[in-house]
Design brief:
Length: 552
Amino acid sequence: MDISVSELIVRYLQRLGIDTLFGMPGAHVLPIYDCLRGSSVKSVLVKHEQGAAFMAGGYARVSHQPSACIATAGPGATNLITGIANAYAERLPVLAITGETSTYIFGKGGLQESSGEGGAIDQGALFASITRYHKRIERTDYLGQVLNQATQALLGREPGPVLLSIPYNVQKERVDDSVLDAVHIPSRVASRQYTSTAELAGLLRAARSPVIIAGHGCIQAGARDVVSALSDTFNIPVTTSLKAKGVVAEGTPLALGCLGVTSNGDAYRYLVDHADLLVFLGAGFNERTSYLWDAKLLAGKKIAQVDRDAAQLGRVFQPDVAICGDIRAVMDDVFAALQADGTLPKARALLDGHQANAAQPASDDGANQAFRLMQAFYRQLAQRFPHNALVFDDNIVFAQTYFDVSDRNHYFPNTGISSLGHAIPAAIGARCFAKDSPTFAILGDGGFQMCCMEIMTAVNYGIPLNVVVINNGTLSLIRKNQFQLYGERYIDCDFVNPDFGLLAQSFGIQHYRVETEVELDRFFARADLTGGINLIEILLDKHAFPRYLSAR
């Protein structure tokens, strides 16, 4: 059947299973928008193209499926860059579609031209280092091959964002719909091509005090159940990276909590004082997790590493056993081997003693009084939403220590490139997929003012959302660094906030101001946190901040 390229692109989205397209129309993508009418692909109009990229990223993080965003040429495309860079860092399968001026005016100074010709900006070059594949489609005779290559990059073993830039005149050309026959969806069957797991099973069998360090790869591999079963059966404690909170239910006896420079340090102390074997499962051991690569964490210990990405093996440290393969398949085999030979559970004395000491009040507990409200917020959040909640968190510092994520909840810290202004649009994108999940976007007041306009996107489409703003009138990380490292010489960290109540009123949403634990109780008792759109401000003293060092 003879159809337009624009119609083919919409059908390509459908073939990928994409049902929601986040973006903002412009003259150079209107042919594609026109073909969305009557299709199964729903378009969501954002307030800024960066929000579209973050929404697509949030959708992909929750669904583990490809997502898409669209923008016009020139400024529309350049506004996508931060969100696409974040998707690249997070290895998210986000398809970005952008327009371009017609090919016959390349180099002539067309409005918003970004062909790279005649002094125009080169849009492809801007995206080259933040996409797995990028292509400006100037002809239709190779369109099938381009779409197939885009698909392989988007959904391959190491997925990531893809950019397709389509000139206006090419969008209107006619092609046969059989072009889509060239598109092949990569198989998602877990690969079992790995060496024997006997060595890893042997290390676990021989260890006196092993610890599993679970990373985000465990979640991606669907390995929560086997990691939890291995931990429970053999009394192996588990600590996680920030992105992997909830691999095992936090707050349970074998959960050490989160490992990282902004955490409370409980997991760090147990690893340094007691562990004799560390089993890294899909954890990259980055700067946050490794306490700036503190050698004491690994000293005198056997190390095993399992990762689906061979490039991660030995990248930071030299493991005694390294296995490249699907984490779930590997650990299923290890678990079965330990059960088959009757391996006994590990003794709990060291772990029980550690947890008893951790439960004692800290000598500097008074220094944490300023954060009691944040601690109470996360405690109630965990208690009232023990499963199915989506929490997108730009702040991360308080959640890392105070939020016990259950193995049935989903916590999405702002990692990637750690961009301010991420949580609100990402949460909106996620809720477009997970329509029945209570959804929270938690961020500071500085980041809020970068993205608060996207609340109106939630309002426009009736997308339930809870936006939690930590209101302290400062860029907390900057103020903390200037306090610790620059002799309290403060510059460009403090600001005046708008009246959040009036702002919420202008959006037509509910507002809650929380300054005490009594007000917090009242908020949780009264607010519709599943079906409403709420703006919640939690007041914090700008002079209070955690004591960790975040710069070297």
